[in-house]
Specification:
The complex is a heterodimer. Chain A is α+β, with helices and mostly antiparallel strands. Chain A has helices at 61-69, 111-120, 126-139, 155-167, 185-202, 213-219, 237-242, 247-252, and strands at 23-32, 35-45, 50-54, 76-81, 84-85, 96-99, 173-177, 205-210, 222-227, 230-235, 257-265, 270-274, 282-285, 294-300, 306-308, 317-328, 332-339, 344-350, 365-370, 376-378. Chain A has two domains: 13-95 and 171-248, Rossmann fold (3-Layer(aba) Sandwich); 255-378, OB fold (Dihydrolipoamide Acetyltransferase, E2P), CATH 2.40.50. Chain A contains eight helices and 20 strands. By secondary structure, chain B is an all-alpha fold. Chain B is globular, with a radius of gyration of 24 Å. Classes of the chains: A alpha+beta, B mainly alpha. The interface between A and B is medium-sized, with 26 and 21 residues.
C-alpha cells in the first residue's frame, strides 16, 4: 500500500487482520454447462464497504451478484454472510436486497407502494411501515411523487425509487446492478455522489456491479477488477489507478501508454528499460525490484508526461517526437506523439491558454519528459 | 386533405358496413309484418315523391317493442343469454389462464408453435367443429363410450341438448379469444419483476398473486369482453348443442326470422340486443383506452 484510501478516512478494514468480513467467497466456481462464469473465486467484503465489481460484459460480475442475491447457486465453494453459509437460504429469506439494472419497479403500484412492498412482506406493524416509507422518501427526495405510478416519473426518479425500495428493509447488504446505466452522463455524475452520501448515511454495505471504470472509481471504497471469471486485482481506486498489478488492469482503468521493453536492474529499486533502437533507455523506479534482466511492459499515464517545444534541461527521461494528432477535450488536450522509432505516446496537458494561442500544434517537433517515478514496470 | 382522406376510410367502412345495415334493421323493427315480399310494410315508394315519404313515415310505430315488453318470453331469453354468456366467460377464463401462463413461461423456441396450436382450430369450419362436439357429447358419443369403457360410469351421461353442452361449446369456441390477450399481457412482463418481488421477501406463490396476476388484468378484461360480447348473441352453439329448454336470444331471433317469418319483431329483438351489448362494448373501449394511456 503506497497511499491511504482516497476518501481520506481511516476506513480500511481490509488492512486490519482482526476485522471479520461480512461476506466471504471461498473458492467459488460457477459453471453454466461448459461455460465457467466464475473460476475459483475467493474474496472478502467488509461491513460498511462500498465494493465495486468492475469488468467488461461477460466477465462474471453479474453472476457474482446473482449468487449473492440467491438467484444462482455456486457449483463449487461456499459463500457466507456474517459467517453463515448462504447456499440453503432462498432469495426471499436473505438479508440482502438488490437494485435491478432495469429497476424492476412494479408498474401497477405507485411509488409509495413500491417502497412499502418489501416491508409489507415482513411482520412490521402498519404505522411502522408508513414511517419507514416516509423516511425512505425523504432520503431519496421523492416525497412529492409518492402517489405517482412508475410510468409517470422521470428516469432519474425511477432510479431513486428503486434505490429506496431496496434500502427500505435495511438490508445487511445492498446489491446494485449497473444502477446508473440508464441515466445520462450529467445525471449519472450527480447520482454517483448521492449514492455515496446515502451509503454513508445508512451505513449499509454496498456491492455495485459496473462496467464504467469512472463510476467505480468515484463511488467505491475498493474496486475488484475482473476478467473472464477471475478477480485480477482488488484495491482502493487510487491504488488501482496508480499501482495496477498487471497490464490488463492498467489498460482497463483510464488511459495509459504501454511500452514493451527489456529491463535491466541498476539498483534494488531502479531499472533501465531498453525499448527501441536509437532511443535513450528509460530510467524508472521499480519498487519491487528485478532480480534479473527480463522483458517487461513500461506503463505511464498520459497526464504524467510533460510535453514541451523546448528541450527540457533537467529530467530523468527525455524523448523526442512529432505531434500527429490532438484530441481537444476542452479542459485538457491529449497529444498523440510519434517517436522516431515508431511508438505512439499520448501526453496530456491542461489547456491553460485559449485554444487560438496554443503553443503546440500538428506536425510540431516536441519533447516529452517524465520523472523516474512517474511510470510503472509491469511484468504480467 | 390527404389526412382527411386517410381518416375518412375507416369512417366510410363503418357507415357502409355498420350504420346503413343497422338503420335498415331499425326501420324494419318499426314496421308491421305482412304477407308480401319483403314480408313487412310499409315499403318506401319514392315514385310518389314527398307524399310517399310521409305515408311511409306514418306507417312506422313502436308496436313491436311494446309486444316484446308484454311477452315475458323475450325478457327471459335476454336474461338467460346474459347468464349463459357471463358463466361461460368465467369458465373460459378459468381454462384459458393456466394455458396462457404456460405458454408465456414456455421456452422461447416453443412459443410460436404453441401460439400456432391455439390458432389452428380456426383453419377448420366452425360449424364442423361444433358438429364434432355433438358426436363427442351425445348419449352414444365418444365421451360416454370412453367413460363406460373405463368403468367410471354405469349409465351414459346426458350432456348433449343441455346447458352444459352449450357451456362446453362456448368455452371451446372462444378459448383462443381469451388465451391470446392474456398471453400477450403475460409475455411482455419483465421477468426481473418476479425476481425483485422474491428479493423483497415474496414466496413464488405470493409473487404470482401480487405481481403476475395484477399485471395480466388488462389481458383478462380484454379477453372477457371478446368472449362475452359474441357469446351473448350466440346462435349456432345453442341451436346445435343446446336443448329445447336452452333459452338464448340468438335462437329466439332465428326463430322469429325463419320460422315465424316475422321480420319486424325479429328486427326489434336484434335492436334491443345491440342496445344491451353497447354497454360492454363501451366499457371495453374505455378499458383499451386506459390501457394505452397507462403505457404512455
Amino acid at each position: 500500500m503506497t497511499e491511504s484510501a482516497s476518501t481520506g478516512t481511516d476506513f480500511e478494514p481490509w488492512n486490519d487482520p482482526k476485522a471479520v468480513p461480512l461476506i466471504q467467497f471461498k473458492n467459488v466456481t460457477k459453471r453454466f454447462g461448459d461455460f465457467t462464469a466464475i473460476d475459483n473465486l475467493t474474496l472478502d467484503i467488509y461491513a460498511r464497504e462500498f465494493y465495486a465489481l468492475l469488468g467488461p460484459s461477460g466477465c462474471g460480475k453479474t453472476t457474482i451478484m446473482r449468487m449473492l442475491a440467491g438467484f444462482e447457486t455456486a457449483t463449487e465453494g461456499t459463500i457466507s454472510l456474517s459467517g453463515q453459509d448462504m447456499a440453503p437460504v432462498p432469495p426471499n429469506k436473505r438479508a440482502i436486497n438488490m437494485m435491478f439494472q432495469s429497476y424492476a419497479l412494479f408498474p401497477h403500484l405507485n411509488v409509495w407502494d413500491n417502497i412499502a412492498f418489501g416491508l409489507k412482506r415482513s411482520s412490521m406493524a402498519k404505522d411502522q411501515i408508513a414511517a419507514r416509507v416516509e423516511e425512505m422518501l425523504r432520503l431519496t427526495q421523492l416525497e412529492k411523487f409518492a402517489r405517482r405510478k412508475p410510468h409517470q416519473i422521470s428516469g432519474g426518479q425511477r432510479q431513486r425509487v428503486a434505490l429506496a425500495r431496496s434500502l427500505a428493509k435495511a438490508p445487511k447488504l445492498l446489491l446494485l446492478d449497473e444502477p446508473l446505466g440508464a441515466l445520462d452522463k450529467k445525471l449519472r455524475q450527480e447520482t454517483q455522489f448521492e449514492l455515496v452520501d446515502i451509503q454513508e448515511k445508512t451505513g449499509t454495505t454496498f456491492v455495485i456491479v459496473t462496467h464504467d471504470q469512472e463510476e467505480a472509481m468515484t463511488v467505491a471504497s475498493r474496486v475488484a477488477v475482473m476478467d473472464h471469471g477471475k478477480v485480477v486485482q482488488v484495491d482502493t481506486p487510487a491504488n488501482i489507478y496508480e499501482a495496477p498489478n498487471s497490464v490488463y488492469v492498467a489498460d482497463f482503468i483510464g488511459d495509459i501508454n504501454i511500452i514493451e521493453g527489456y529491463a535491466t536492474p541498476i539498483s534494488d529499486t531502479m531499472v533501465s528499460v531498453d525499448f527501441a533502437e536509437g532511443q535513450p533507455k528509460i530510467h524508472t523506479s521499480c519498487p519491487t525490484g528485478l532480480t534479473a534482466p527480463q522483458r517487461i511492459s513500461f506503463a505511464i499515464r498520459p497526464e504524467k508526461l510533460l510535453i514541451s517545444t523546448e528541450k527540457p534541461t533537467e529530467s530523468a527521461n527525455i524523448l523526442s517526437g512529432k505531434v500527429v494528432d490532438i484530441a481537444y477535450l476542452g479542459n485538457i488536450s491529449t497529444y498523440h506523439v510519434k517517436l522516431a522509432s515508431g511508438q505512439m505516446i499520448k501526453a496530456q496537458s491542461a489547456n491553460t491558454r485559449r485554444i487560438r494561442r496554443r503553443a503546440i500544434t500538428w506536425e510540431d517537433d516536441v519533447w516529452i519528459s517524465f520523472t523516474d517515478t512517474a511510470g510503472m514496470v509491469l511484468t504480467t | 386533405m390527404k389526412r382527411f382522406t386517410l381518416i375518412s376510410v375507416p369512417y366510410l367502412w363503418l357507415i357502409v358496413l355498420f350504420l346503413v345495415p343497422f338503420l335498415i334493421v331499425l326501420k324494419v323493427s318499426l314496421s308491421d309484418a305482412a304477407l308480401a315480399i319483403p314480408p313487412y310494410s310499409p315499403t318506401l315508394d319514392l315514385s310518389q315523391g314527398w307524399a310517399g315519404i310521409l305515408v311511409w313515415l306514418d306507417g312506422l310505430d313502436m308496436e313491436n317493442y311494446w309486444f316484446l315488453a308484454d311477452d315475458n318470453l323475450y325478457w327471459k331469453a335476454y336474461l338467460s343469454s346474459l347468464k349463459i354468456a357471463a358463466i361461460s366467460t368465467f369458465l373460459t377464463f378459468l381454462v384459458a389462464y393456466p394455458f396462457a401462463y404456460g405458454m408465456a413461461r414456455a421456452a422461447d423456441e416453443w412459443q410460436p408453435t404453441l401460439l400456432m396450436l391455439v390458432i389452428l382450430p380456426f383453419w377448420t369450419s366452425f360449424l364442423i367443429r361444433v358438429y364434432a362436439w355433438k358426436a363427442i357429447l351425445s348419449v352414444e358419443g365418444f365421451l360416454n363410450q370412453f367413460l363406460l369403457w373405463t368403468g367410471a360410469i354405469h349409465d351414459p351421461l346426458i350432456i348433449l341438448n343441455t346447458n352444459v353442452a352449450v357451456y362446453i361449446g362456448i368455452v371451446y369456441t372462444y378459448l383462443p379469444f381469451m388465451i391470446l390477450p392474456i398471453y400477450a399481457a403475460l409475455e411482455k412482463m419483465d421477468a426481473s419483476l418476479l425476481e425483485a418481488a422474491e428479493d423483497l421477501g415474496c414466496s413464488r406463490f405470493s409473487a404470482f398473486w401480487l405481481i403476475t396476476f395484477p399485471l395480466s388484468r388488462q389481458g383478462i378484461i380484454a379477453g372477457s369482453f371478446l368472449v362475452f360480447i359474441p357469446a351473448m348473441g350466440e346462435f349456432v352453439i345453442p341451436a346445435l348443442l343446446g336443448g329445447s329448454r336452452t333459452l338464448m336470444i340468438g335462437k329466439v331471433l332465428w326463430e322469429e326470422f325463419f320460422s315465424n317469418r316475422d321480420w319486424p319483431v325479429a328486427s326489434a329483438v336484434a335492436v334491443i340486443l345491440l342496445l344491451i351489448l353497447i354497454i360492454p362494448i363501451i366499457l371495453f373501449q374505455r378499458n383499451e383506452q386506459k390501457n394505452r394511456e397507462a403505457q404512455g
